[in-house]
Amino acid sequence: MTQISDLQQRAEQGESKASLARAFGISWETVYQYLKDAPSA
Fold first, then answer.
1. 5 contacts 16 by C-beta, under 8 angstroms
2. Measured in Å, how far apart are the chain's first and last C-alpha atoms?
3. Cα 34 from Cα 37, distance rounded (Å)
4. Residue 39 has what pLDDT?
5. Cα–Cα distance between 24 and 41 in angstroms, integer?
6. pTM here?
7. Cα(19)–Cα(40) distance, rounded to whole angstroms?
8. pLDDT at 1
9. Residue 38: its pLDDT value, please?
10. What is the pLDDT, as a whole number, of residue 4?
11. What is the DSSP string of 1-41?
């Protein structure tokens, strides 16, 4: 599983964007960009 897909899965499970940013060492803006660019299932 890639970091982006892991981030997307954790976001779907309800983890906060700030928590994800800290866990992955990225900015919250990057978290939102990754989630925005995620393909709809």
1. no
2. 16
3. 5
4. 73
5. 23
6. 0.80
7. 23
8. 59
9. 79
10. 92
11. --HHHHHHHHHHTT--HHHHHHHHT--HHHHHHHHHTSPP-
Q: Give the residue extent of every domain in the chain.
A: 3-36
Alpha-carbon distances of 20 from 15, 35, 39, rounded to whole Å:
7, 11, 19
Determine the pLDDT at residue 41: 53
Structure tokens at 20: 């994800």
> Cβ distance 31 to 7 under 8 Å?
yes
CB 4 within 8 Å of CB 34: yes
pLDDT per residue rounded down to tens, the chain (41 residues): 599 999 999 999 999 999 999 999 999 999 999 999 877 65
Please state, in angstroms and rounded to a whole number, the distance separating the CA atoms of residues 25 and 28.
9
